[in-house]
Amino acid sequence: MSYSNQEQKDVVILAIESSCDETSAAVVKNGREVLSNIISSQIDIHTLYGGVVPEIASRKHIENINPVIREALKEAGTSMDEIDAIAVTYGPGLVGALLVGVAEAKAIAFATDKPLIGVHHIEGHISANYITHQDLEPPFICLVVSGGHTHLVVVSDYGKYEVIGRTRDDAAGEAFDKVARSIGLGYPGGPKIDKFAKEGNENAIKFPQAVVTGAPLDFSFSGLKSAVLNYINSCEMKNIEYNRADIAASFQKSVVDVLTSHALRACELYHINKLAIAGGVAANSAIRASLESECEKRNIQFYRPTNILCTDNAAMIGAAAYYEYVGGIRSGYDLNAIPSLRIGERQ
Amino acid sequence: MILAIDSSSLVASVALVDENTVIAEYTINLKKTHSQTLLPMIDEIFKMTGIDKKSLSAIAVAQGPGSFTGLRIGAATAKGLALALDIPIVGVSTIEMMAYNFNHCNKLICPIMDARRNQVYTGIYECAEDALKQVEKDAALSIEELIDKIRSIGKEVIFIGDGIPVFQELIDKELEVKHCYAKQHLNRQQSSALAVLGLKKLAEGKAVVSDNFAPVYMRMSQAERERLENGKENES
Asked: CATH 3.30.420.40: which residues of chain B?
């Protein structure tokens, strides 16, 4: 299936995202052109608590949502009348946080008599690649890595997703957060380890690879996380000084190696020579560098969203929603937030 | 014309009311998520009445106290409507709107909402001529604290709200002041009462731009409370 925009009228979507701790609204044209992408981050307040506090996140969303939407429309130079559809993330995520965006989007769709499109948060992350890479078309493999998710997905067509690998325990981003805390880097762990690891030797400590026996595309990060904690404990018990930068670098290498090898294996098994990454951890510079060079060696085309599109944002939701819109998918006014919505699932 | 929305408790209630008439009111009291009921109910009353959404002059919404998530679903629905229709929001205390189920009543009116953790969201009101007068401000109290307050006022009282099934036995045992309980057609949140109060507040200039509207929770989140408590411990 392919869509030619020349014969069609432009489709302008107002998208809303509130699944975790960013309140975001965007106006996206034809799924590829971002007219605005406003992100109001709550990171400062959650840092006080060492992680996202769901009730506080929900309270912030309800305060921020209207100014953020207004700003998105203003920056895009679009009036509500020029919008063709309203899109919103309805899962997965924090239920209280999701509900704010869902209720808001439904009310706007109702008040303006415009179609409503519920979007899967991770399908949004994957679709961020359509924005950065105008030439990208399915089929491709996508490695999704974020604070809550680690998946290998085959995108066989627009709106068609099949999960072929997943984590059995912690998400990659979770492991980054926990390890960062254990070496005193604090929250959020991903960017802090990324930066700190550059000062360390990635071959200093041999940490285990996060593989699952018998499931070549699945991941397991809890063993790796425990290995790091055990290493620190045993050093402390023996009163040996340890190098925190070496731990960060060696841990990161272990994660990067397993993500890279699994992603390449997926391309090989499914005979697909296009690989994309998505999600918050996709902004990690070591992961990007590793995939980039390994893909080049194997003649695989590598795609990655710009850093801002790797974080939670509404533009990616607008991109995913466009293909749902053209595919005739519409949500009802009874659309609910589904905190554990599965990739490819439709309510 | 005003649209009133309440989803502060188990009840979901929406109403369309103008200066003279309650044109439509749709209330359900079921264990069904507001996220799935509220907007279909709003859709239904507009369809049934044929009223044009553009004829609304404001949205009235139960501002709190109540279920945190319930309040936010109501608030986000109101905000989305108000933003898209370019009209303001009138926030009304959930306690006051419940007390407003009664008028020209010679008893004290005491709404009690089950607030869990052995507390009620409550307040004490009385009818003064045509209006409602607040005797005791809205708060989260233990039922014992509330009984003490009523005892010290010493006036006959009528209770309403979903705190009744939880605390009736205790109230009957502890409160010697004459008291009674609203019948089931009056003892829950009614969006028609919210709408009438909303229209009054709108006329008084108490509406706000939708951007500035936020629920009144009357409680901090657990994380904030614990952080504050830990901070105090560290100080002492």
From this structure: 2-94+189-219, 96-181
